[in-house]
Amino acid sequence: MEMCVMPDNKYGKKAFKYSGLLRSFFAWPLYIGAVLIIICAIMFCVNVTAATVVSIFMVIYLMACGLMYFYMRPRIMSGIVEFASNYSQVQKQLLYNLSVPYCLLDNNGNVMWTNKAMQDCLGIKRDFRKNINTVIPEVTPSIFPDSEMGFKEIRLTFQDRDYKAELKNIDADSIAEGVDIIEKSMDSSMYVMYLFDETDINTYIQKLKDERFVVGLVYIDNYEEALDSTDDVRRSLLAGLIDKRVNKYFSPGSAIVRKLEKDKYIVVFRYNFLEKLMQDRFSLLEEIKSIKIGNEMTLTLSMGIGTGSAEYSKNYDVAKAAMDLALGRGGDQAVVKDGEKILYYGGKSQQMEKNTRVKVRVKAHALRQILDNNSNVLVMGHTLADIDAFGSALGIYVIAKKLGKEAHIVLGEVTSSVRPFVNRFIDKEEYPDDMFIKPDDAPSKINASTVVIVVDVNRPQRTECPELLEKCKTVVVFDHHRRQSDTITGAVLSYVDPYASSASEMITEMIQYVDDNIKLKAFEADALYAGINIDTDGFNSKSGPRTFEAAAFLRRHGADVTRVRKMLRSNMNEYKEIAKAVSRVEVYKDAFAISIFNGDGIDTPTVGGAKTANDLLDISGIKASFVITPYEDKIYVSARSIDEVNVQLVMEKLGGGGHISIAGAQFTDCTIDQAINKIKLTLDNMIKDGEI
Questions:
Q1: Which residues are annotated as a binding site for Mn(2+)?
Q2: Are the beta carbons of 611 and 579 closer than 8 angstroms?
Q3: Which of 62, 367, 469, 687 is the most buried (most CB within 10 A)?
Q4: Residues 432-449 pLDDT 10s
Q5: Which fold has domain 358-567?
Q6: Is CATH 2.60.40.2250 correct for 102-203?
Q7: 211-346: what fold?
Q8: Binding site, annotated residues
Q9: CA-to-CA distance for 557 and 364, rounded, in angstroms?
Q10: Is the pLDDT of residue 355 over 60?
Q11: pTM of the complete model beyond 0.70
């Protein structure tokens, strides 16, 4: 029903004009009366007697219509007005007594009206007209939705209760239409706020989360080595202390701890205990190192925690995947895999190289079988390949050629440190012209019998040509960098050994087991030796027995130390820029050297940045160095340390990765100052959290 105001009547008052359904209700009887008059006139022409009878009924009908129209209409109108008034009062009363807390705010946040539930919820009186943020500080005009958004949700806590607040924008002009006491404004708005109590729901959700099933695997990294370094009479005591320390650590969570093997445990507990372990940052990693009963080697352990799956068996599979990740990153750490989320704890100590070559021999035989079943080999490392990536790729190339396979090395931009080695293989009769191919040409070389071998990198987006990984069904990975969550998946053979000093060391070992008749040329041995030399900083870092054995093998095959040193020397411009970068270094918190390497006019600035980072470690008191190098619209960060700081953890938080003592990261859409601030903020947070 609608009513509109007619012009002033004779008393100067506004009269109402009916419209809509009410107007039709009063108009239809008049229309029917007009039709009856026409019918009556026609009937007088046909039959006077019948027309007279119809006229009598017509007169009665018109009198009834007149009575309804002139007498009943005002009374009907009065009833409608009364009903509307009562209905409005009922609506207001229902809104006031609504169980959902509700209030009306102006655009400054002042309370205009509240219902009883809101008054009870906030503990305010009915005439409360102060600003809402005096009661709920989180609700300020800055969070109010604009007219385009119209609606906004926020979560807040008030008096130990959790609420979801819904804010809705109301156009004040529409309310002020026809009202002279409110001034209209183009941007005037009012806001409705509802409060929904979610405390019970959140409590039940938290209970369900706390009761989730968690599987943990605990492996002692160097059990055999620690046992061998202990006297015979104390070995049983060492094993007993390890068992006691592991069981005691998990006992507060009512966990079930079972020993799978002499150095492996499985643990089952609830998720609420996992949260405590994460807050504790898995202190068992450090506690196990305190076991000293004559063992010369410090014990370390790794933990893989799996949860987030609805099925218990799948949580065990998730825990195994987490453990593989922990071991692939060098051990001495805990990896928590909760669905797609992965968290890392520990990993501060230097990895201990395992002296056994059983794993190398097994991987070498597996590689031989893969190559025997394929005829085409594509080898690639990471973008901006360093000498380790080049040397290891060359080693795989030599193996493939020895087995009679067609082979190519995928090589993009050649850095200044690699160019002297690459030039030694170009335009030589014993090496084909297509030995090196560009990343853009590599996909065209793929066929049904192609195997792609990736060296010195295990992240697909860092390879020279990620497209090869998608197109080729047979992929092999050899790398010495610690694994991250975004590793290459689907490889038929993956050998990631974070204990190795370099990829060149790993491939040198593989050469010795794939085929006994492989003989390296002097230039080939030089490249592999240079890869080991660079990644160990001249055999000063991460150099174990296997590293020197690999270097000795290469020396026997013609690697010349003097020749390699000459090829690795810096040119004068690069050396000057390194000196400038060292001179303007900033020492942050008396322990971290941060500098900028300006590579203008230098072929490969990133190499200069890495050399600068190495040189900064020679300064007394420096625990880690970070050198920022702008190059081709990117910011490259080279991070180095000796043994006190795990720079890989620092770089991982910045989206990079690497080793405990050698790592890096890349930034895009970032300025040098922003990069420095990111590094400082990351260091501050890690120091605060006890990670450094």
A1: 382, 386, 388, 456, 480, 535
A2: no
A3: 367
A4: 988 999 999 999 999 989
A5: inorganic pyrophosphatase (n-terminal core) (3.90.1640)
A6: no
A7: Alpha-Beta Plaits (3.30.70)
A8: 382, 386, 388, 456, 480, 535
A9: 20
A10: no
A11: no
